[in-house]
Structures are given as C-alpha cells and as structure tokens.
Specification:
The protein has 311 residues and is an alpha+beta fold. The protein folds into 2 domains: 115 residues, Rossmann fold (3-Layer(aba) Sandwich); 166 residues, Sandwich (Tumour Suppressor Smad4). Helix content is 31%, strand content 34%. The protein has a 6-stranded antiparallel beta sheet. The protein has a 6-stranded antiparallel beta sheet with strand order 14-13-10-7-16-17. The protein has a 4-stranded parallel beta sheet with strand order 2-1-3-4, sandwiched between helices. Helix 3 links the parallel strand 3 and strand 4. The protein is globular, with a radius of gyration of 19 Å. 47% of the residues are buried.
C-alpha cells in the first residue's frame, strides 16, 4: 500500500526517535514516504497532493491541529486518513480508540490496515472548513487562545498549562458577566444567552489526563452534530457543570444552565448585538468572528479505524 507519513515535527510528543521507529514499522509492509510540515496549512496542501497522486493512506503523526488540516485535504477523496497521536491531548486519536503512545498506536494502525478496517465517516463543517471533533466558542476558545500564546510550554507543561490557562482566562481574559452569543436551530429553537458553546462531531469533548470530559454521549462519527451551550459562568455553576461532564452518562445535558441538542444537521451562532466572539476549531484558535454557520457532512472521508473500535 502506498502511504504518506505526514509528520509535524513541532508537536509536543514528536521526537526524532519516534519518527524513525514509526517509519521503519510502516515500511515493513508498505511503500512509505515521510514528509514534515513546516507552517500552518501545510498539512492540508500535502494531503491534497497525496490524494491527487493516488496515495492510498495519509498517516498523520501530530496533534489535533495537524489532523484537522490533513482531514481538510482528504475530505471528498478516496484516500484514507490514519492518525497517530503526537500532540499534548490527542482528542481525535483517543476518541477512535488509540492509546496516547504513538508507537503503541502504530501497531494498532498496522493491524487495521492489514484487516482493511477503513470506515467512511462524517465530518463537521464550519464556515467553509471541516472539523473532526469539535468547534468551541466563547470561553472555551478564549482559553485555547491563552494556551497558544504559550505554545512553547505545551511540550513540557501539558495538562497543567490548560488548567492554568482556564483559571487565568476566567479571572482576567473573558467577560463572565454578560452573554456573548445566541444559537439558532432550523426548527426555530434558539438560545439567547450563550457564554460557552461546543459543537461536537464526536464525544468526548476533551481529556483531563486519562479522564474524558463527556458532554455529548450520543454523538458518533455516523450521526449528526451535538451542540452544548453553557448559559452561566458563575463559578459554583461552572464547577457543577464540570463535575457532571467528568461523571458522564448524559448528566450534563440535564443541568438547567445547559442547553443541549443532539443529532442536528445544522445551526447558526451569532454574536450578540453583532459583536464578535472567540472561536476555535479542533483545538486551533482562529480569532474572533460575529457569525458561525455549522453543518454536518455525512460520509465524506475514509478513516483508518482500530480493529476493535466501537461500531
């Protein structure tokens, strides 16, 4: 099989040794070319070129941002995406059942390729860009911005950096007193007091260490999007919401300060009074925007899945 190994050398868990070991393992049974990304957007162009050249699988060794870029290059093609965790959180890789160690994941990837375990999946779409697992708006995106401002620390600090960024964002970098956006659904349902919103194409939303933040348990790669809107940022309410997300089992959707919709094909998020709000896509902060249109696009990309991944 013709394989492109697409590596982001700047990702938190990617080392020279890891690259060598993984390339050698893949090359045992496949025709492998290794290419490194050099700048933002590079993975999309490399993946597009691979699909045009008849490459059968593009394997990404990098974080969620690199995976997102590659998915945007492969969507609509017959070239499959393979994922190996190389970042600090690796939400998408872990969502599909891969361990957080890239070498261990390589063994499962090779097993999946041998078994032909490739599934056509749906992706989310936001303002012209595909997303694999979620789009965050409001507080969530403001937190990601603070993490990206200190991106050099991600390799060493990992999850403690996210916790620190969450606290500093709450107290210093985000208005927790006034709503930021409204959410509109095609059936007329609406939310007018959004502070923090996450539109999910998969579940969980993220991980704290090995513990999943379970906010949309019904969401899979085969059904529509879920939208979770947090309607208060009062500290006691937010702590209760976080506790329910860690508990899982659908408890979060029953909170009275949460508006939850699942299996939707589209929705619109607008800044209140036309004011922009921060947003991020698959963990990649994209700035502030006044209007976000989200859709579900079914059966748009082939994904290499672990043999034992849930149906």
């Amino acid at each position: 099989m013709k394989v492109l190994l697409l590596v982001n050398p700047f990702s938190s868990s990617v080392t020279a040794r890891t690259r060598v070991v993984i390339r050698k393992a893949l090359a045992g049974d496949h025709d492998v070319e290794l290419v490194e990304t050099a700048r933002r957007g590079h993975a999309t162009r490399l993946a597009q070129g691979a699909a045009a050249d008849g490459v059968e699988v593009v394997v990404v060794l990098g974080g969620d941002g690199t995976v997102n870029e590659a998915a945007n290059g492969l969507a609509g093609s017959s070239t499959a995406l393979g994922v190996l965790p190389g970042g600090s959180t690796n939400v998408f890789a872990r969502t599909i059942g891969l361990p957080n160690d890239p070498v261990e994941s390589t063994a499962l990837l090779l097993e999946a390729l041998e078994a032909g375990s490739i599934r056509r999946i749906g992706l989310g779409w936001v303002n012209g860009r595909y997303f694999c697992f979620h789009v965050g708006m409001g507080y969530d995106a403001a937190l990601v911005e603070q993490v990206e401002r200190r991106s050099g620390l991600k390799r060493w600090a990992g999850h403690p950096l996210f916790i620190w960024a969450g606290l500093t964002t709450y107290f210093s970098h985000f208005d927790t007193k006034h709503p930021h956006f409204r959410v509109r659904y095609p059936d007329g349902d609406r939310v007018d007091d959004g502070y923090f919103g996450v539109c999910c194409n998969t579940n969980p939303y993220t991980y704290v260490g090995n513990r999943p933040f379970d906010i949309a348990p019904e969401t899979t790669l085969e059904n529509g999007l879920s939208m979770v809107t947090v309607r208060s940022m009062r500290a006691d309410r937010l702590l209760r919401i976080m506790g329910k997300a860690l508990k899982g089992g659908g408890a979060l959707g029953k909170d009275r300060f949460i508006h939850y919709r699942n299996d939707v094909n589209g929705l619109l998020v607008e800044g209140l009074d036309g004011k922009p709000f921060p947003y991020q896509v698959d963990g990649d902060y994209l700035g502030e925007i006044a209007r976000v249109e989200l859709r579900h696009v079914p059966d748009v990309m082939d994904l290499v899945m672990p043999v034992d991944a849930p149906a």
